[in-house]
Design brief:
With 319 residues, the protein is α+β, with helices and mostly antiparallel strands. It starts with a strand and ends in an 11-residue tail after the last helix.
Length: 319
Amino acid sequence: MEKITSFEDLLNKLKSHYNLEFLGENKDEACNKLYAFRDTSTSKQKTHILKTVTKDHTEVQFYIHYLPRIKSQFKLLRLPELIGLYEDSNSAYLLLPYYEGDKFNFSTNDLDLASGMAGLVEDLTSIEVESVIEGGSAFDHHGYEQEFWDHFDKVVSFNKEYQVEMIKGLNLIEASEETDFRQQAEAIPVKGRSSQKMIISNGDFNPRNVIRMADGKLVLIDWNGIVAPLEHHLTYPWLLNWQNPAWQKKYAEEFEKRLPVNADNLRYHLMRISIIRTAGEMGHYKPRLNENPLFMVKDHMKNFRHGLKGFKSLLGLFD
């Protein structure tokens, strides 16, 4: 990691080392600041992206410690490349290629991407987890379950706090259901504590973090994690894309056909992610201003209730 004294110092280094012309802040929506550059020796509008993160961010660790250990050859997956890494007193700066290609949002209806993302998970399972991060194959069931119960309690409290007609129509956890739901939910993680298959992952596996290149390869970007359970990769993007059931069906079909899905783990991750997403959406709700109509909460709660019941495939959950 190369030290810099200021952003201006960094711009000068990139110009002298890589012939990069600074174009300004990139307009693509992102949580971290992105800056666009152009290699002056080409005619392309953008050739590089500079990403600003905290110095202890997981993505820095990914590029320094984990990416060099991944030796697998992939059918579809293209891991992002690191060109340069810089640091000042406050932040780290990742110099990355600008990947030209198709970009997607959470609610894409691109069925080819549904198949492709199942193929990405298939590629990710080919990486030997322990060769990348020691202890990474162990499932942190304490952390996962604590997160579930924290969000379960939040959803219960929301239902008690907001006594309005719209909230009642969202199928949140009623006081009369709480004890029964707790008992049902407590039994589900127990079956999966020792059988979770952990795989190398970017920590936020969804269509928005995939770029489809002209050659058909899929670049997986924004690495804010390094491992996650296999069935999490099925339920997480499936739940996010609640507006497109055709995409959900295609993704579930391709995933379950290609990969060894454990039905108990699938129930657990559907239940867990549903309640986390519900609590997140309810946290944005402003009843007096009615700014957040919470369209997706009802769907998330429907899937939470599905998670409490027995099923073997997400394909069986469509009306």
